[in-house]
Design brief:
71% of the residues lie in helices and 0% in strands. The protein is an all-alpha fold.
Length: 227
């Protein structure tokens, strides 16, 4: 006898649709090969989320062009200034090149980040700035030392800048793609060699590394990761 207080649901005339049946949240891995494939996908996803991927190839090309112009000005123009204005003009030219390069990189990185739907000043972007700051600060401090004691550094300022730049790039490379670290090691080697060169050759190495090296690197990165 059925109680009148208990309502029974009549059986459905149609069987449930398999497509509407909720799927399990967790799936059982049936083989070691499938487990390894899942781990590979997880690693790739985590790597993409922890790597800075909004690099602009056009930025590298423009920075190289700025460096070539700066090298030409400091080689042909600034030596015509009287002492001590020649070294003031020398530092002023490269300070302008550095500021222009930084501004260009920020603008183009922001443009590419917006195109990819990302934020350039994300927590990862802030980590990049903090990582690069010590190397940049070393370059600025030694540039001020060059202004006060030019006879102590002289042509070595080119190699010092390359080494400081290499330190900043290698620090950034820990949060970015492998090609950034390659650029950092290249500048580290170029800086070490430049310290052994006379002033004219050191100036030429400056143009080759900061100018030609950045243009080649920017073109490579542009073709691989986009402009």
């Amino acid at each position: 006898m059925t109680s009148p207080f208990l309502r029974q649901t009549p059986p459905s005339p149609n069987p449930p649709d398999p497509a509407e049946t909720p799927r399990p949240v967790f799936e059982v891995v049936s083989s070691p090969g499938e487990a390894q494939e899942h781990l590979r996908v997880i690693r790739q996803t985590m790597e993409r989320s922890t790597k800075h991927s909004t690099l602009s190839g056009l930025s590298g090309v423009l920075v190289g062009f700025y460096a070539l112009v700066g090298s030409a000005v400091t080689f042909f123009v600034t030596p015509t200034f009287a002492v001590p204005y020649d070294r003031y003009a020398f530092i002023a030219v490269w300070a302008f090149v550095g500021l222009l390069s930084f501004t260009t990189d920020v603008i183009l990185t922001k443009r590419k980040a917006a195109f990819l739907g990302k934020t350039p000043l994300s927590p990862l972007g802030k980590h990049l700035l903090r990582a690069a700051s010590p190397g940049v600060a070393v370059g600025v401090i030694l540039s001020a030392f060059y202004l006060m004691h030019p006879n102590l550094i002289m042509q070595y300022i080119y190699g010092v800048w390359m080494l400081a730049y290499a330190a900043a790039i290698l620090a950034v490379g820990m949060f970015s793609v492998r090609e950034v670290s390659v650029l950092g090691w290249a500048f580290l080697g170029a800086g070490a060699v430049t310290l052994l060169l006379p002033e004219v050759a050191a100036a030429g190495m400056m143009a080759a590394a900061f100018g030609g090296g950045h243009i080649w690197y920017g073109a490579f990165m542009g073709r691989k990761f986009g402009w």
